[in-house]
Amino acid sequence: MNNGQALRLLLADDEEAVQKIYGSQLLQHMGNSVSSQVSELERELFEEPGAVEDVSPTTVTICSQGDEAVDLTTQAIEAGTPFDVIILDVRMPPGINGVEAAELIRDVDTTVPIIFLSGYSDIPKKEIDKRVPPPNRVHFISKPVRMAQLAEKIREVIDD
Q1: Domain-wise residue ranges, the chain
Q2: Tens digit of each residue's pLDDT, the chain (160 residues)
């Protein structure tokens, strides 16, 4: 993540209800509003510029298909504003699945952390690691996922 700039997340999931939940709750769990207010209050109380770590805002771009995720990633790279983390559902009918999307994303961004979310995957993790290298930049969370769990995983992968 670029210092001082918004954390940019891309999330692709074919279920509209899941998209709405992610869109409304993920930002809260990333700590944007509360952390920013606390940091500002600490600055005012202690008058020590730079003593409190700045919390960058988070933006979440949501799409419903793998091919959209590839297009959005390509556009972001071309605009000089790449995503910091990409979150993909493994199964997204009727289009390409999350693993196929991740393979295409790797053609334009070789190091972006990718988090796969899935209730069911018919593709073994070892195969995904081979198809979407490097394995240390590929992560998995099983559905159903708690927003706090996803937010923690996002923080973990951007700190690597």
Answers
A1: 7-159
A2: 445 578 899 999 998 887 887 777 777 777 653 333 344 444 455 554 444 444 458 888 999 999 999 999 999 999 999 999 999 999 888 999 999 999 999 999 999 999 998 877 678 888 888 999 998 999 999 888 888 888 889 989 987 7
Structure-token pair, residue 76: 């972001």
Q: Which two tokens stand for residue 157?
A: 């992968």
Vertex 118 angle, CA 115 and 119, to 5°: 155
> Which amino acid, residue 27?
L
Q: Report domain 7-159's class.
A: alpha beta
